[in-house]
Batch of 3 targets.
Target 1
Amino acid sequence: MNLSSHLIQRLLHLPPPATRHLTVENDLRVPMRDGTVLLADRWTPASGSANLPTALVRIPYGRTGMIAAQVARPLAERGFQVLIQSTRGTFGSGGVFDPLRREREDGLDTLEWLVEQSWCGEAIVLYGGSYLGFAQWSMAGQLPPQVKALIPSVSESAFTLEFLRKESFSLEATFGWGLQVAGQERRGAMLHQALRIRKERRAWYTLPLNEADIAAVGRRSDYFRNTLDHDAESPFWSALDHSSRVADLTVPVSTVGGWYDIFLPGQLRDYQALQGAGRDARLTVGPWAHISMGVGATATAEALDFGLAHARGEKPSSRAPVRLFVMGEETWRDFPSWPPPGYNSQRLHLHPAGALSADPPPESAPDTYHYDPADPTPAVGGVRMAVGVKSGRVDNTALEARPDVLTYTTTALDQDTEVVGEVSADIWFRSSLPYADVFVRLCDVDENGRSTNVCDGLVGLSDADATTCATVQLWPTAYRFKRGHRIRVQVSSGAFPRYNRNLGTGEPRATATTLRAADQQVLHTPTHPSAIVLPLRRVT
């Protein structure tokens, strides 16, 4: 156990603990309102655990192993007792696992049980990332007074819905996670997951898509099938959307995210709701993707500062409400709000011959490329969540050499230029088919010509055979383009398998089988001024 303690301390960059000697009380039975019993483990210091605040963690991935130990052990060694509970239908807990649907009711029932336990103490902190963060958001608006703080990381209150937009279905995240949870309790699940990576990647190309789970693992994933059959606007998912409750959350919140995290846009909307309601909240965003030790280390630090202080009735360490890692400058900076003040919206227009400029474009012929869903434009780095896949900032040289990717680049910058906030693009577009996607990526080109991705986004069109202005919402960012570097915009029609490939037919994504290639046009004229819209500040 001490070896595990030392390893986690090193991985999470933590100071030495108050104790390394813990006691784990297994399989506590927690009754739900419908008679179902969920199981939980209680981690406490071997001595001196009386009246310690309780960190509640609700998790669908099991209460043992490295994931649980990384969550429970560092907190239990440094001032908390930790109750880590398996969510409904997972790892010994009763009922059926229907991902995300019962977290509000079950979470509130767990809190009701917890405050009645003699060992609970007078303060509770909710903690955890991703699904564990959603489990916290889901209880907003009905928390007992014993709950003193929430610390959700890489998560949001409308979990999954960002993936399921009709115009930008996130194949990689929904498919990979659906297969993971469908088989996670099989013997040797981690080994099976590692062995199936190649088969899973082949399965991305399966048509119809509702047979991809069978192709990958030989059995259904109910969650994945549901994501195919119901888009984000369907009432089927209404139980997963707790965003309307966020502004009513009076408990202090510290939320941790990453610039390349799959949940970042929703997480920032949640923070803005708290900010707009004048709540006690702070935001930290680093240069991370969803699966990153940096997220875990920062969230743990927030639990031991922000969470523990509020649990004890004390003030956490003083800092600005918003702390952002400004990429390019490679440093942390503090800001008063999100989006930060002082960044003015500026349009950089696409020009002929691959130019990008603040000047309006001249009359010019459109740029063209051929998109073939049989050879889809690949996702390279960026916002990814798949085992063995490189995420975040990567070299885009090979991607930009493809004939189905257009690039537009400024001249060398004469001074440092920061982009911090929400990024969008208006791309005037026309296709030979009604159904097409427009993918836009912002890149930084250094003095040696190496292009590195900053942020991106995709939108699908259903009237693309007419000249259309495609408004693309890119991921938010904080980035400094250095003097001598150039700003680049990529335009293409896909980022597969992050997004499902557009087959060009308009058939339902679950059952479509026909592939149709398309000829695409990007317009840049005075009447069709394609542009990227940047929150920009020049640094003197």
Target 2
Amino acid sequence: MPDDAHSLAEAARATNAWPFVEARALLDQRLKGRAPDKGYVLFETGYGPSGLPHIGTFGEVVRTNMVRHAFELLAPGMPSRLFAFSDDRDGLRKVPDNLPEREMIARHLGKPLTDIPDPFGTHASFGAHNNAMLRGFLDSFGFDYEFVSATDCYKSGRFDAGCLAVLRHYDAIMEVMLPTLGEERQQTYSPFLPISPRTGRVLQVPILERDVTSGTIVYRDEDGTETRTEVTGGRVKLQWKADWAMRWYVLGVDYEMAGKDLISSYELAARICRILGAEPPQNLIYELFLDEVGQKISKSKGNGLSIEDWLRYAPRESLALFMYHRPKSAKRLYFDVIPRTVDEYLIFLDKYPQEDARRRLDNPVWHIHAGKPPPPIEGVSFSLLLNLASVCHAEDRGVLWQFITRYRPHLAPGQAPLLERLVDHAVAYYRDFVRPTKRYRPPSAAEAEALGEFADSLRALGAGAEAETIQTALYDVGKRHAATFPELKSWFQTLYEVLLGQEQGPRMGSFIALYGVQETLALIGRALAGEDLSKA
């Protein structure tokens, strides 16, 4: 069902998909329908490179990209850019636990991240190393962005005008910040953090004098020496709320998201941005992730999933779908959500070709793939692959491909890239999560009678039986044994527990068509003979 520009434009105005809601608010409320004076609309995401990129980093970037793509459809003649900003001028406050050369790093605590040697020995600094990790991470997902370094902005003079503006409005900014601080912190707070020319550390010290005319401040260095320094040329950096506001002011940021834990920080930065003479960007506050028991995910605790965990067991598109759903609602992020999310992605992908323009823009795969999703995979779900791996005790991809190519000959390796990835993920997920929890049980006498009757039906259908025909035969057997299975659900649960060793499972007609009629008959025969199905 082809799209045309007019129908897409109309759909973009009508859809309630949240990226379009955000994009319309940006276009209509902030921009008033016209491009900014700088000539483009600027989206921004922020990253603190004291640690490696994590799942929250991915979430913020992928969601911002979704809003940007929606905006580009709404306003096709209005250029846009995305800055991935790294706050690499920040001083390192503690040594991360997962680093080599921790004693060496400890000697440089307090220095900007880009002035600390790289403990991995591969880059000019620790900050440069983590920036490279961020860029490689973003590049691996194909994001269209421009990397911007705080160190480069401060040292090159790009932030000079912003720092001078903060100096001019120093008193007004202090009036905003001081009431939010404790009594002790109020005595030392300043929006400026001088970088000591003697030790190289970022200092949190009070400012003794200010001179707007010369653009200088005076502070007491760590050795007690009163030191005058210019606020330009990277000789200082700003406290992060003031820094955030100054960045919006200098760069002209039009849109930036933030997590729920930064609501008060965003509000303070927005007030400072207005003091400097600019409007803060359009903003979406997204909820944080929870672990399996509903606790907030914390890098230091190590609870919840890492991005490496998810990408080991599922394709990146499924993670993007997880990020798409309800960004303003807290979601539990743990291993059990992975198979369900993958299958949900495949369902949306399967629906897309038959949908009209409006429904396509409501479909998450439009946002995941910027309007160009790949073709769907016919008749194969992730849960089906997991159960195939389970019943075959698959330890490598080749076992699954033997069944897949017989079931769908056109889906050979090399012909279906997404399916290839799904097969590898299914084997990994089965090996780590399914196999350790499988618990087979023998059928009762009444259950064995129903299984034997279904085996007879399956023999009569023959090896080439279609999935729906097999499913109908399953229903018929279950209904004939209503005394044993008052609800059909209990009949299918018996099949799962006896044949697959688990409490839940796939649509059995589809599974048997993929696994094979003869193979299923052999499996039933082994179960009825009392064999141990946990062994291949």
Target 3
Amino acid sequence: MGKFAKWMVAAALVAGCGGGSKTTSPPPGGGNPNVGVDAGPVDAGPVVDPGQVDAGPVVVPVDAGPVDAGAPDAGHPDAGAPDAGNDAGPVDAGPPDAGPDGGVITFGTPGPWPTGNVIYGSADGIQESPVVGVTTDEPVTTPGPNASITQNLWVATHDALYLKKPGDSSFRRFDARDGLHLPGNVAASCDDAAGLLVPCPNGSADGPGISEIVGGGPNEVFVGYYGHHDWASPYDGTESDPYRHSGKLERVRLKADGKLEVIRFDMVSNNTVEFWHNRTVERMIYDHFIHKHELYVGTDHGVDKISPDLWHAPVGWFLLPQNQQQWMSDHLHPRACYHAPCVDDSNQRLGDFRALGLDSTGDLWVGGRWAAGAIKYLADNTNWYNNPRSNKPGDEAFRFAFGDPYTSYCMAGYGRPVFCVPQEGDFVNLSAVTMTRDAQTGQDKIWYSSGTVYNDAADVNYGVAAFLARPGVNQQMWTYFNPVSDIGMSEMNVRDMVALPDGRLVLAGPSTGLTVWDPEKRTHYQIRSGQGIPSDNVLRLELDKMVTPWALHVATDGGAAVLRNLQ
């Protein structure tokens, strides 16, 4: 998107690049405006005598191959064997990957944790509620005659990160004293348009603190935070915004001495330091299987791709291709515009990307408050964020873009923003996206859910939608399901949703626990508080398919649960 001349603030109209998102909790009057459009030409940084700064070697990530230049609705060829389940492709059957201490990353074993259902709470050392995330890092087989599997279990509340290693009797708690940049613990320094800032202005989480976690490689977890916005300021999201360094995310690694290594990833536009839009982390997903060790971050504005294994401290101007752009790509987003198809960058609505999922090819499906789509994988972070890629017409970053143009109600094809909203730019409130394998066509079936988090009068819980790019005989491109009458939930609001490897879906309600639904057999049952989960207020679901049987991680208002035995 092009560089813009000015920012506009309109409380009645959520518009611009990054339209509306939460800061710390759903505001009483609905979503907040996040107004503006995206960045312009590459910022070369301050003029520096090249003889004075060693820029270091330029490392160019391997490209994933030629980008599909066909029509946006062409999709990918059939990926072959059925996918193992949602949000990831088949388990890697290639040579084992090296893990820490000479161990080997090993998928497909039961892992070190109980194979039954377990609830974790205050008795296990978790001191606060709610639990906002439950995750595991990659399992490692240690060598030797007494070989064993190690894998860490991580839990987060707003206030702390918790770790349980195999054999531990309780969780160990980490907070700001251990290096996490929770509210008030600002980063010692940060790169900025003005140079290195010491300390980093507002360089910590906004209240309530941690928003999301996801496990990475061995002994690694990523921690996302809430950021702060001043929606009344015309400078929000710009280099003049005093809160531009708030929120963000961190790579946290457990060291051999039991302490944490914390590296802060300060998201900023790839091509200029004028724009710092993304700061609240809404959702993260980590690719363990296909494009290994790629991290995707859904935020209040757009979606970032992070290659954490490529991270290194910058040498010279931090935004050079061999520095921050090597390991971070900021950012992409499908969009809609207010009650009319988009003609330029004005009147845009986008943001609140709570829905992220990986299909069987490793492409990323995303959904936000107004729009959705599928982003084609590209390894090169200096180019991933571009649409069109490399600024070449037809070289689009999106396989599909749902939301614009939407010229008539429930129009045929790809224009609708997943659900049939009255007009383009109306709220659709996408809360999750997951994938199953369609039995008739063999392709990925994409499932989206809708669930409100704000109190806006125009908010609607639209339910669940299934998308097939190439429908088979007697099939439809879009199929819709009512969460109560069709799926068996006790409320219309779908907080989260994952697909199990056997094709069933697990749906979470914000006040009615879990519903396990078989869309083929049309059968369902519920899991409520006291029946395997600690609370009916479910905040997040995650599926660990690195172990067999798989493990469903459930974060609730009253604690955490790991479910490995669903009837």
